[in-house]
Amino acid sequence: MGKIANRFAKRILLQTLFWLGVWFYFMYFFSYSSNNKDYAFWFSICLMPVTMITTYLVTSYLMPKYLVVKKYGLFALYLIYTLIISSYAIMLSIFGCFIILSDVDMDNVPPLSRNFWFVLALVYLVVGAVSAVRIMQLGYRSLNKAQALEKDMLQRELYVKDQELNYLKKQIHPHFLFNSLNTIYSLSVRRMENTPEVILKLSNLLDYLLYQASKPLTSLESEIAHLKDYVDLEKVRFRDTLVVDVDYHAPKTPISLPPMLLLPLVENAFKHGVMKDDKLQIKMSCSMEGDELRFQVINTAEIPTANSEGGIGLNNLRKRLQLLYPKRHQLETSYNEGVYTAELHIEDPQNTSNEEV
Question: What is the pTM of this model?
Answer without folding.
Answer: 0.52
